[in-house]
């Protein structure tokens, strides 16, 4: 967490320094509700006279579009495979990775089933709608004993 905050601060300072005027406001798009971490980023950035605005997105497909369209200055929510997939699907995207971010582990959740062993054959399971995270979800379902994947199945699918 400290490493992430440090990297974000460095990126913020560089971004603010590259601005065309003295306005040191930076808008970061995030796709999580981890407000505690982002409040710390805002607090640390303030020490460098940088005003950070956090814009929350509930759809993982929107932060990159907002960044490419100039609606935000940077985003922090994705792994490299997701960004690569996005750039292939959206030709002309001019986004580059500056650093890494924290990746939340995937989980299996239910409001009815309390034990994964109680999941019945044929039960419906929802997985992410992007290929880079679908593979992660399928690996998780296999690790939980719910499905069996081909031997050569990798994180790329």
From TrEMBL:
Residues making up the signal peptide according to the UniProt record: 1-22
SUPFAM superfamilies on file: Periplasmic binding protein-like II
InterPro entries noted in UniProt: Lipoprotein_NlpA (IPR004872)
Pfam families: Lipoprotein_9 (PF03180)
Subcellular locations according to the entry: Membrane
The entry's keywords: Lipoprotein, Membrane, Palmitate, Signal
PROSITE patterns: PROKAR_LIPOPROTEIN
Family, as annotated: Belongs to the NlpA lipoprotein family.
Official protein name in the record: Dipeptide ABC transporter glycylmethionine-binding lipoprotein
Lineage: Bacteria, Bacillati, Bacillota, Bacilli, Bacillales
